[in-house]
Amino acid sequence: MSKPLALPVVPIVLHPTRSSVVWAVGSRIFAYDLQLKAFEAKAADLETLGPVRALDVWQGEGKLLWLAAGDDKTVTTWLDDGNHGSSWQIHETLSHQKKLTRAIFDRKGRIILADRFGDVCRWTPSSDQEPEMLSSHFAIVTALVLTPSQRFLVVGDNHERLRISHYPEVAEIRSFCLGHLMQITAAGHVVGVGVDG
The organism sits in which domain of life (predicted)? Predict the structure, then answer.
């Protein structure tokens, strides 16, 4: 029996208002409308300097923002005007000191980001403030998700551990989930087992 082919985890996100899917391969981001069967934006307009490890979308305050983060140590946000075929405009960038492994928006449009050294920070775009440290892990953060109520932040790492902390104040840890046999690459399934209750 042959070993399964090890493929990199490709960040992929469904568009919140259209029948589109957005994904990254290497340093390029693609947005494709499944209903119209056409690309929404030119991939060259959505290129980063290094491989993209995280994608997310936030809708609020009358705008739609996309974020990408990865090996170029930068979080980039794009403004999507909501029209098919329009080019996304770079909205804001944050240069970090280390390579980023994950990044997500919270309900208020703040960005939670994790780096290869296990630090998890929160950054408020459109502010002059530096990212604030939320927590530190002794392993590379490989998964990051907020529960639907956003009461808890779930962080997975490459040492087969999940940490579930209260959010937005993460100093209070609700629990650890141990016993995984392989590196954690996604933590969304934890929400389905009563973490949010």
Answer: Eukaryota
